[in-house]
Specification:
This protein is mainly alpha-helical. It contains three helices and no strands. The protein has one domain.
């Protein structure tokens, strides 16, 4: 449950980064917001899929270790997900900026 919430917040960072570009550059048309939201949603969905695949692969690999080692690996995964949030916002910002320049 906590992991799902963390992945959802993490994926929401892409949307917030994409919409941040829209507010900073004054492109306040409905089409521009919709386009930025779609970019953020695509990046967020890809992010969620990636985190779930990484989690599945990691939990499969650490089954042979002791419980304390498994807990350490999962804590590191949580820390990595939290540290990824600002990076996700910057990626959403940069991808939206590039896409809007191409239009």
């Amino acid at each position: 449950m906590l992991w799902t919430l963390l992945v959802a917040i993490n994926s929401g960072s892409f949307i917030s980064g994409a919409l941040l570009w829209m507010t900073e550059h004054g492109k306040s048309t409905f089409g521009a917001y919709a386009f930025a939201s779609i970019i953020g949603l695509i990046l967020g969905a890809s992010n969620a899929r990636l985190w779930y695949k990484v989690t599945d692969a990691l939990t499969e690999r650490i089954q042979k270790y002791s419980a304390s080692t498994q807990e350490r690996y999962l804590r590191m995964l949580y820390v990595a997900a939290v540290r990824w949030m600002p990076v996700a916002a910057v990626i959403g910002y940069c991808v939206t900026w590039t896409a809007m320049r191409l239009l």
